[in-house]
Specification:
Oligomer: single chain
Number of strands: 13
Strand content: 15-25%
Shape: flat
Helix content: 25-40%
CATH architecture of one domain: 3-Layer(aba) Sandwich
Distance between the termini: 67 Å
Structural class: alpha/beta
Radius of gyration: 24 Å
Strand order of the largest sheet: 10-9-8-11-13-12
CATH topology of one domain: Rossmann fold
Length: about 350
């Protein structure tokens, strides 16, 4: 089931849609095109909102090449209507798509805040939260961990403490997503002009949370009792207008979120490990059995959890593998392009020689 796009008003200012000086600086002085925010992306068309209302815009082959995703800002010629340009993004959530092609899948753009949604049941997984935090840091969005279904357990204190310990100053909220009063704690990140995205696996209560935040209703599905995992409700990405004037982007449930090119973000998420690593005797220390390894010393003293180091290494390895795969694919594409150009050039010279001989 696709989510509807909820619009509270047919007329918006650019600022209420999330316009920033960053986007304004990209406009030409004599620009006559209309800035518009992408609300949803469908096969061959997009829905956009601008100062004059809302439009459905067909994507030509040229505009589709811009790689447009939900949350993007585009410049539209309303006489078409047609997209003429996509503006540079202030933030971008993306992932390496499933499979072996190494293609990059765009998830959402220009997001200010990210609600990382988990639940107080078997879905709660520290390793997954660390993965989501790396994605948030890489995109430059402010993360808030939201633990739903708090009403289903006797106490969420241990879960809140475990999540909060992942990063200094990390905000964690535990709530019943069906209760509007509980959800009020999330309102500060949903004010006018703010864009927030939801990220989390299926069945954690994202659709229920949207219902409470937006004051609307979209279908939810029960959790399977055998493994406490949810069924997919959202099948497409879309923006929802919130009562406070902010915007919320929903994303489909993703169980496997591959990382790529997030080395700096991993150092931020695992700042404790990175801090100890800086104290190692050797710059290329592998933190295994090298003399003067501050990381192993921290584990021996109890200052660092060995499991956290293991998870850090696992994500580092995945990031390197995926990043190298992408670089190699790009290199192959460039080499193939050079080869084609060389062949065409040789053929042209060959034809030129024949004509010259005649």
């Amino acid at each position: 089931m696709s989510c509807a796009v909820y619009i509270m008003s047919t007329m918006d200012t650019l600022q209420s849609l999330g316009w920033r000086p960053f986007f304004q600086s990209q406009l030409d002085i004599d620009n006559e095109l209309t800035p518009a925010r992408v609300l949803s992306v469908h096969r061959g068309r997009i829905e956009v909102a601008h100062e004059y209302g809302q439009d459905g815009v067909a994507l030509s082959a040229k505009s589709a090449a811009f790689g447009i995703t939900v949350g993007d800002w585009v410049l539209v010629d309303r006489e078409g209507p047609v997209v003429r340009q996509r503006l540079d993004r202030s933030s971008l959530f993306q992932r390496r798509a499933a499979g072996t092609t190494g293609e990059i899948q765009l998830m959402a753009a220009n997001v200010d805040n990210l609600f990382i949604v988990t639940s107080a049941n078997r879905d709660f997984n520290i390793a997954r939260l660390e993965r989501y935090l790396a994605i948030a840091h890489d995109a430059g969005a402010f993360p808030v961990i939201v633990i739903t279904k708090a009403d289903t357990v006797d106490s969420v204190d241990d879960l809140v403490a475990a999540a909060a310990a992942l990063s200094p100053g990390l905000l964690v909220e535990a709530l019943d997503a069906r209760n509007p009063q509980d959800v009020e704690v999330l309102r500060p990140w949903c004010e006018s002009g703010q864009t927030v995205a939801l990220l989390g696996s299926s069945g954690v209560g994202k659709s229920t949370l949207i219902n409470s935040l937006a004051g609307t209703h979209q279908e939810t599905k029960a959790v399977r009792q055998d493994d406490q995992r949810g069924r997919h409700t959202t099948t497409g990405r879309s923006m929802h207008r919130l009562p406070q004037g902010g915007w919320l982007i929903d994303t489909p449930g993703m169980r496997e979120l591959q990382l790529f090119d997030v080395a700096d973000a991993l150092d931020e998420v695992f700042s404790d490990v990175a801090g100890f690593a800086e104290q190692c005797r050797f710059a290329d220390c592998a933190h295994e059995s090298e003399p003067g390894c501050a990381v192993q010393a921290a584990i021996d003293s109890g200052e660092l959890d060995a499991e956290r180091l293991r998870r850090f290494r696992k994500l580092q390895s995945e990031d390197r593998r995926n990043t190298e795969t992408l670089a190699e694919r790009r290199s192959r594409d460039k080499n193939f392009g050079r080869m084609i150009k060389s062949i065409l050039s040789d053929k042209q010279k060959e034809r030129g020689g024949k004509h010259g001989g005649n």
